[in-house]
Amino acid sequence: MNELLVAFKQTKYKVPGHGPRNLHVLKKALMDLEDQMESEMYGKGKIIVEFHEKMANFLGKEAAVFFPSGTMAQQIALRIWCDQKGIKRAAYHPLSHLEIHEENGLKELHQIETVLLADKNRVIEFEDVVGMEEEVACLLLELPQREIGGQLPDYSTLEAISAYCKEKGIKLHLDGARLLEILPYYEKTASEVCSLFDSVYISFYKGIGGIAGAILAGDTSFIEESKVWKRRHGGDLISLYPYFLSADYYFDKRVGKMEQYYAEAKELAHFYNQCDGVSTIPQVPVSNMFHVHFDAPAKVMEIILADIYKESGIGLSAYVREVSKTASYFEIGIGDLYAEVPDDELIEAFKLLDKKMKSRNELHKRD
Amino acid sequence: MNELLVAFKQTKYKVPGHGPRNLHVLKKALMDLEDQMESEMYGKGKIIVEFHEKMANFLGKEAAVFFPSGTMAQQIALRIWCDQKGIKRAAYHPLSHLEIHEENGLKELHQIETVLLADKNRVIEFEDVVGMEEEVACLLLELPQREIGGQLPDYSTLEAISAYCKEKGIKLHLDGARLLEILPYYEKTASEVCSLFDSVYISFYKGIGGIAGAILAGDTSFIEESKVWKRRHGGDLISLYPYFLSADYYFDKRVGKMEQYYAEAKELAHFYNQCDGVSTIPQVPVSNMFHVHFDAPAKVMEIILADIYKESGIGLSAYVREVSKTASYFEIGIGDLYAEVPDDELIEAFKLLDKKMKSRNELHKRD
Fold it and tell me: Do B69 and A212 touch (CB under 8 A)?
């Protein structure tokens, strides 16, 4: 374990997240549930049917089905739309999860070609969609765009893209891994946002803080077809209840806290942006997440941050990632822990960060 | 819920299985584990590495990796062997899980053609393998062959097939969903059986009685490649611990009980075979499982069995399946429950079954 992670673990207060991903998270979710509660069997049975209905209702869709992972759910969604249209081509952002985190599953398992829209550093705009030269079966929008700090297009842009896709017969899929987290910024309900999309995926281990798993929602025929593909992928387990029961528990616990996380993210980003050589993307967050960028290499930041954690007892991040030889960053996602950090101690930690960045930059300029 | 299932649930003693698949099964497995135990992260971390090593060692293979399902693990195994050989063709039994329970995942996701060996009603023999006309990259053997009551070839046949495949460069994969359950019959260790195969899958919710999940084992390079495919399939979850921690718990609890289950299965099959119009396949079980066949349609058997359960308080099976208009069957898998059934009460139940079958057959002949 590196020094920064060790120092982070030893802090009294941690700024991001909901706390450690340990066995307690599961035990707590199951604690008050009856021992005699019967497992679902391969997607059938009272407990899973009820959860499916609850999620379909929340998202304003006809039907929903629980998947062990978003990777599986989204490849399947795109496969169904491609098969339906008879065009094996889908469009998405160059930093989509499907493009960079799934070992090319979409291509290797489904033979679906991809069209990358927009530049890496910005979200997909209406012009990108209209300007698409290739014919595609579907378009995937990730809201917020995670790999660029959780940025969002204007809501009117979403409406325009949705209307355009409908007109052109292009199916629109929502990568809503962090859908709940953006509702306060858009000032919309989940079902209002989802009404712009033909299919929707949401995750249960981001803002919701569950163990794992995802919901895919859409029309009944789409969802029925997705269940066939779920079996083909090996995702139709005899029992998925350890995931969806805990997903349900943490959903109820945190669905109402997204407004709070969003406000806290804006406050925290403001603290970062006041420090020398530090900036956030987006500058003003539009969800519970953002990226913190440093004008210093990861190796330097690891030392500076570890020192701050030891002095202040406040952990800002467990890691720093290299951007270039002179720049680094980490990602912040606000969860339950932020509210536990005493204001004055947090402000002290940021004074330390500012001071250390200033003296580092002074030294660096003299080199 | 049908009447037979209702009657089964109300019995004092149930003959097959380990008991209900309810939340207690998971809670019990986790109960004594520390709340602070940290989740693995996407296949990395102490708790999963230790389990992988334990299973690789048990199976006598270089490496092992946990999968959420056998469906996923086995498709991937065959894909790797097909890619390696550059031949998209695999051979297996006509009633293989991949052929009849996976919605053609192997073909739809991996474009692998299949060659079906042997007749539906018997196991694959050496002659079937030698007589194969098509060139295949790999051969999958399911031990025991579940859909025909859990039948096995002679061990010398396995050795001959293994030697032949090695000579011909055909990779041999073991569908060992019930591998532990057959070791007492073969009088072999798991690693002895596995040494005949290039890759091996075992399940944790059959004889072991866990929640779900599977292990795939083989050479290190094979397992590393399988992890890439696991991610493509959407099986590389951030946390699989609810499954593998419980798999580990029930593995330790039951790995030493397979000899007992096997002996009990033979005893129980004997009871069935003494009844009029009832027979088992295999006649003498070679594992903890067998099929019970009735010379009567499912509708008739449902009534007869429900009556027996009510009179005796003993539940023989929760369901009966139609074979034809005049025949039906169910599957038995012996678990922890069998030992709890009092001998004399069980014998009484079988006297009832024999009597009711006799009078039914008398009436039937007069019709």
Answer: no
